[in-house]
Amino acid sequence: QAQQAKFLSDVENELEELAVTIAQAKKMVELIKGAATKERERVEKLFAEASEVLANFQKEVAGFIEDGERSMLGEAEADLRWKEERRAKLAQCKQNLENVPSTDTIYFLQEFQALKVAMEENLSPALSFQNELSFTKCTQGVGAVKDVLSAACKKQWDHLQGKGIDGLKFQETEEGLYSCNPSAWRSSRQPPSSPRRWEMPAGSMAPVIAFIIDLDSDTADKFIQLFGTKGAKRVLCPIPYPESPTRFINCEQVLGENLMNRGNYYWEVELIDGWVSIGVIAEDFNPQVSYNYSRLGRNEKSCCLQWNGQNYVAWFGGCKSVVQQPFFHTIGVFLEYSERALTFYGVKDSKMTCLQQLKVSHPAKGQFDPFQNKINHQFACLFLNKLKPAFFLESVDAHLQIGPLKKDCVSVLKRR
Known about the structure:
Jelly Rolls; six-stranded antiparallel sheet; alpha+beta; single chain
C-alpha cells in the first residue's frame, strides 16, 4: 500500500508538471501564432504599399510617354501636312504649266510665274524637338528600377535565409569588427553602413573589409541627384541642396560618408549610363577649388578610374594611363592601405579582371612611363591622409549605383 501510495503521488506530481508545461506550451503556440499573424499583416501592408508605389510610378511613366508623344506628334504631324500640301501645290503648278499650249505665250508666262512663286515660298520652321525623343529613355529607367528591385529582393531573401556574402558564419572579433554575413547585422552593435571583416585563411596578411558605402548628401554637387544612399545621377536642373562646407560647387562629384585609414577595403560600383569616374580622395580635400583642379585624379589628393564612353583611363596627379580592356558594367575597387595600393577590377559573372593597379613599382631599366613615374614619386603621400570613396559623374545623365558585392569575388581576393 505504501508503494502504491508513493506511485500514485508520483503520478499526481507528473500530471501537475505536465499541466504546467502544457499551459506554457499553449501560451508559446498562441504567442507564435499571434506573432506570425501580426508579421503577416505587416508584410501584406508593406507589399500593398510597394505595389501602390509601383503602380503610381507606372502611371507617371505612362503619362510621361503620352505627354511626350502628344507634344512631339502634334509638331511632327503639322510639319508632315505642310510638306504634303507644298508637294501637291508644286505638282499642280507643274501640271498646269505642262498643259499650256505652246502658242499661248502669255498664259505660259503666268503659269511659270505661279510655279516660281510656289517654289520660293518659305520653308516650314525647323522642328524644335531633338532627334532623340526624350520618352524613349523610359525603358532604360524602368529597367534600372526592375534591376534594383530584383537585386534588393534577392539580397533580402538571402538575409532572411541567413546566407552570408561568402558563406561565412557570424563571428565577433576581439576588435569589434564583424563578418560580412548580412544575417548577423540584426544582432551586431554596428549599423549596416560600417565596415565588416571577412575572415581570411590561415597565413594570410591583413583581412579584407567589406566596405558598405553610403553616399554623403552634404558633399553632392547641385547637379547630382541622389537615390537614397546608393544611387547618383547627373541632371540638368540644379537641386536646392542646403549649404555645406563639404559640398562640391564647381565639379559634379559626390563622396562616400565612410573613412578609410587602415586595413584592406573592397567595394563595387555599377555603371548604369554615361561617363563615370570612380576612385578615392583625401578627407581634407577642399571641394570649392576650381573645376580643373577639383576633378578626381587631376590633383595629388585623389585618383580614379574613368570610363569615357570608349575606354578606361586611370588618373592621378593630372597624369593618365589608358586601359585597353572591354567595358564592364561592374567595377570592383580594392584598397590595400598598408600596401599603399589601389586596384580596379572589371567584374562579370563573379570573375575579376584586373584593369589597373596604382602602386609604386620601378620599371625595367631603359623604360620610362610618365604615369608610373608620377605614381612612384607622389602616390604614397596620398596614404598619409584618411581617404574617402569618391565619384565623378562627368556627362549629363551619367548614372551609377553602389552595387551589391559578388560573393565569389571575396574568395578571389583571398587567394591573391
